[in-house]
Amino acid sequence: MTGDPIITMNRVSKEFGDVLAVDNMSLSIREGEFVTLLGPSGCGKSTALKMIAGILPLTAGEITISPAKGNAEHDLGFVFQEPTLKPWASVFDNVYLPLRLAGVGRSDGEPRVREALKEVGLSRFARSYPRQLSGGMKMRVSIARALVSRPRILLMDEPFAALDEMTRTKLNNDLMQLSDDHGLTVVFVTHSVFESVYLSTRVIVMAARPGRLVADMPLDAPWPRSEDYRTSIEFTDEARRVSETLKGTLHVDEIDH
Amino acid sequence: MSTKSTTDRTRGVHEDGGAPINIGHLRRARRERILSWVMPITLLVVAICIWEFLVRYHEIPKYLIPAPSLIAETLVRDFASLMASSWFTVKLTFLSLALAIVGGVLLGALFALSRPVELSLFPFAVILQVTPVVAIAPLILIYVDSTFAALLICAWIVAFFPILTNTVVGLRSADHNLRDLFTMYRATPWQKLRYLLAPSALPYFMAALRVAGGLALIGAVVAEFVAGTAGQHTGLASRIIESSFRSEIPRMFAALFLVSLLGIVIFLLTSWASHRVLGHWHESEIRREL
């Protein structure tokens, strides 16, 4: 169920000093797509994501996000590799943050925060503090915070990289369910071939030095994926195809270690 | 069926937050807390008794080392004059600490917001800090008419610096990703300060407060020493000097005791404040369960 282009990157470049982090990248993402940016470290995938978020300024080119139709407070949600929660604030206050910054009063915001917490399965932990939660739970809080302002676009920067395998699998499934329920467009950065193939409807393979887009690979398997897909032949085939493409982009010295 | 109900029950225990409470552990924690009070107090009492005994046994004259009982007697006898002096020192210390907090936080915020302001003003703050207050105090006493104001300035100079530097570092210590998040959500500068920078700076500020509290008292006492006994209303340091001129050693000890007591009270107050503010989240104030 993909629709009109929602994010358009047109010949985007980003330099940090002398380093060309992203070189002349063009990409069009349609509404409802689940896109992963896959590549080795230093390929500029996080930089591209942060430019879409408006956190990093561009050196050249332009990024357009189609105008929002709804009345969401924020069009974008962002989830970092670390949970990035405020340690001094309760789970409730952490999730309430985007609404507070948008000027939504506490009484209006409260049901929204409760709903977001319920969606990630943390209703009972509204009054806990981040230090009392496990890594997976903190990540769920982070996701609830990103979703509370009802964005159309969810940007995720290797969100599950630091989690153990079982937690990651569970969160992968929950994330697909959530993005399907909300009709979200997701841009997901990862360096895991398996995660990208399992989660997304389209894999963008990137290479380093300079960071650039090398392949755009749509994945046709029905989405959201079921747990069975993980062990199917199709999954293995797709993973091999993506893996080969990724290998082709690496320099010899990178493959060695 | 029976298996299922067993599983349910097991899960129920976990969901009630019911990890079995370790009574032995609790008891040990309480005993440790009591010991942390009882031990030092016992030691102090024993030391005072030994002191009293040695002074009496060797018949040491009171102008050399007075017995604790005599110091206590002096405290009671000179209660009125010592209390007036204590009140003066308390006022001086807390007022200078309050002004150091206001000045340090405001200037620190300014430094954190503007690099040029920091670059141009920071060297002067350093000069003020590294010059010993004893060396500046005579000048300040000459130029400032009111003795109290002059003493206040001296104590302020000493207490101000740690608050300034820690506020600057604290305001800059906010998590980079959280900063990015605030940028993405288009937070106003005020929202950024209120909801991100200020809370991030709190642990640094509270650490500075504990240092500055002690320094304010030191600054107040040192400044008074320089000022001498001039003036009608003077503090505990003036009582010490005055007693030393008159060789009233017990009275010196009594005043010294009050200065120490004030220092302890300040330490406890700032520690308590730090625990109140940071206790629910910051690593430094959280008791780890072992």
Structural classification of chain B: mainly alpha
Rg estimate of chain A, integer Å: 18 Å
The CATH C-level class name of the largest domain in chain B: Mainly Alpha
Q: Which architecture of the largest domain in chain B does the CATH hierarchy give at level 2? A: Orthogonal Bundle
Summing up helix and strand content along with how strands pair, one would put the structural category of chain A as: alpha/beta
The number of helical segments of chain B is 11
Order of helices and strands of chain A: EEEHEEHHHEHEHEEHH
- Annotation, overall tally of beta strands of chain B: 0
Largest interface (CB within 8 Å) is between: A-B, 21 and 20 residues
Radius of gyration of chain B, in Å, reads 26 Å
Total DSSP helices of chain A: 8
What helical percentage do the residues of chain A reach?
Answer: 25-40%
What would you note in describing this structure?
The complex is a heterodimer of chains A (257) and B (290). Chain A has 257 residues and is an alpha/beta fold. Helices cover 37% and strands 25% of the residues of chain A. Chain A is built from eight helices and nine strands. Chain A has helices at residues 45-53, 91-101, 106-119, 135-147, 165-182, 193-199, 233-249, 252-256; strands spanning 5-16, 19-30, 34-38, 60-65, 76-79, 153-157, 185-190, 202-207, 212-218. In chain A, α2 (91-101) crosses α3 (106-119) and α2 runs parallel beside α4. The longest helix of chain A is centred in the C-terminal third of the chain and has 18 residues, at 165-182. Chain A is globular and about 50 Å long. Chain B starts with a helix and ends in a 12-residue tail after the last helix. In chain B, α4 runs antiparallel to α9 (189-227) and α6 (133-143) packs across α7 (147-172). Mean pLDDT of chain B is 86; it is low at 1-19. Chain B folds into two domains: 1-59; 79-285, MetI-like (MetI-like fold). By secondary structure, chain B is mainly alpha-helical. In chain B, 81% of the residues lie in helices and 0% in strands. Classes of the chains: A alpha/beta (257), B mainly alpha (290). Chain A binds chain B through residues 50, 53-55, 74, 76, 78, 80, 82, 84, 86-89, 97-98, 100-102, 129, 131, and chain B through 175, 177-178, 180-187, 191, 195-196, 199, 202, 280-282, 286.
